[in-house]
Amino acid sequence: MKRRNRILVRIGGAALALSVMGSTGSAQWTEPVRNKVGGSPNIKVLSHIPLGGYFRVMDIDVEQEMSRPYAYVSQSRDRQGFSIISLADLTKIKKIYSWTIENPELHGGTGGMKPQSFKIKGRYYLAQSLQFGNSGPDADLGAVIADITGLPDTSKIRIVARIKEKEYLGGFHNIFAYKHSDGRALLFTTVGGPWANVYDLDKIVSGAPENTWLIGRIPIPEMAATQVGNFGYHDYYVAYDAGTQQDKFYGAGRGGYFIYDVSQIGRQNPKLLTSIVGASGITSGHTFTPTPDHKFAVAETEYQYAPLRIFDLRPGLEGKVNTISQSIGAWSPDWRTNAHNHEVRWPYVFVSGYEDGLQVFNMMDPTNPTTMGWYYTCLCPHQTGFGGVPQWEGTSIFNGAFGIDVRNADGLVLISDTQTGFWAFRMDGFEGWNGHDWSMPNISSAQDWDKGPDGAPKQTPATGGAGR
Known about the structure:
Blueprint: E1 4-11, E2 14-21, E3 43-49, E4 57-62, E5 70-75, E6 81-86, E7 94-100, E8 111-120, E9 123-131, E10 141-147, E11 158-164, E12 175-179, E13 185-190, E14 195-200, H1 201-205, E15 214-219, E16 233-241, E17 246-253, E18 256-261, E19 271-277, E20 287-290, E21 296-300, E22 308-312, H2 314-317, E23 329-331, E24 342-345, E25 348-352, E26 358-362, E27 370-375, E28 385-386, E29 393-396, E30 401-407, E31 412-417, E32 421-427
Antiparallel strand pairs: 1-2, 3-32, 4-5, 5-6, 6-7, 8-9, 9-10, 10-11, 12-13, 13-14, 14-15, 16-17, 17-18, 18-19, 20-21, 21-22, 22-23, 24-25, 25-26, 26-27, 28-29, 30-31, 31-32
């Protein structure tokens, strides 16, 4: 058998990894699709709902309990807020509610960015992150919390709290709701400064004083302080590692990607475990998602021609290297574009690929990821994407499939597209996901709000857990 080598090919400034068979072999290259409509035979469309047109849609979230068949879509521009989609009948998916910030015409910025549903003491809530310009109202408003327990009766929806960040105006670009191993429901948020904020959601929804909500911060390490700009994190993921019994924060932002131990957040300062810095083509991280066993991670960098890179985290986590600086694999649906957000359900990675719509690849072999399926949702010409606020329309590739989520119980795949709205899909052979079926921890972005993370010790009132 010929030896398979890895080479790096420079295309428009990005390093793409290709597989080459021996010294006499040739790189396998597929010309990208030019007319991006339709999809692969194994991807089936269940529903498509337009939600306002060009850049009026941002991220998406779906509740994981089948008894709560609802998805939440963030909306922007003149629809700054969120919409609720009913999945009760998958043959008749429909929008049932929209909330918009008061006096939207006075608000600048993008508006609704990311929704995150969560559950506390039998009640259901939605955290909706917001970003407004400094010159209008609510420049310090980062998120609203809505009580959505009464669904499908939308008349019972109430905004019960508003989270504000007065030190760094401009709101929260990203949020992540997490069920901590000690039983707390926490909200991790980006801010305009060199750290992430961490809030106690129980305190927020119970009506505790506002000055008690913020319980901790996760800094951008000093090693990244020389990078251009004053921003901190762009995106992150938080998950429990049963092998090390740690709650781990995976942050992407200025300088690269950083992993912290946040097991004692709010009681002790987070501890930096390892980082990915100095990797070719990366000065700032965008999205960072580990596999359920925390051995590998998929990392996105937000510029045209950049592939999704796959990193082996073990050398850094085991102390064999100070920092990780080289990827072991890379994947891109089209070298001319840029893949955006992603959800890892081992061995599959579900991607919202901007112009490339829904994309799915298999990372069973992290050094050789393989495309499994796709469906083009943008329906847009190449390079007609976001041009910035307030002009919006531009010539970038940042247009199309923005957010993605997966309902683990039945394998429903949802996309929010900045251009065309809400989409629901099925992939042949993917009828649900549980990590144990793959000899993996049952860990993903989906939270078990009742039991806590898979593998974590059971919590009791005496240990400060869910019964507090």
